[in-house]
Amino acid sequence: MQKAVVDARIAAAAAITLAAAAALCYAHRRLPRLRRPPPRAAVLGDAFLDIMCASLATLPDWNADAPCDAIELLPGGSAANTARQLASFCHDTSFYTALADDTLATLFRTLLSAEPLRLCAATVAAASQSACVVLSSAADRAMVSCYSSNNLLSCAHVEASMRSWLRRPASTRVVHLGGYFSCPGLQTVAMLNLMRELRAGGALRP
Can you tell me the distance from the alpha carbon of 171 to that of 65, in angstroms, rounded to the nearest whole number? Predict the structure, then answer.
């Protein structure tokens, strides 16, 4: 029950961020005579490569094989998904994260290169890329997750680039921190101080 409450709160925070950014972008487009620098959004947090096994008839037992209709590779993670949604209507969206230096990380970068957002990813070569295998049936689902690169994401990886982002002209700036519980390296006083600095500099945190 406690995890469900936490998940609901995380989803609500992401929804608020998306709604606020959408309203800002809409207002900017509706006032061409008062054109100012565009709104900018920055999302910071977790990045997973999702390996989606769809339409399983049943979840597999140990020592058994379960056929599925398709297996897809998709960019995932709470923060990454929020950044992708924001970028669909806020055309200056940056995503700050850490990625490994391996095949899965390369796939993640390739998939995001087709999306209208700016990927600002530190490389953590000491870890494997965080990934999640999602087994999905009509009635239920199960997941197997590797948190390795997300575990290493820290304030030191993003603070310089996010301060640079804050200095760029913008009518409004929105910052969203996602996947907080998947990134223990962000659960620090240094990260709290950076968020305070961004807020003092004019960034909104819905």
Answer: 54
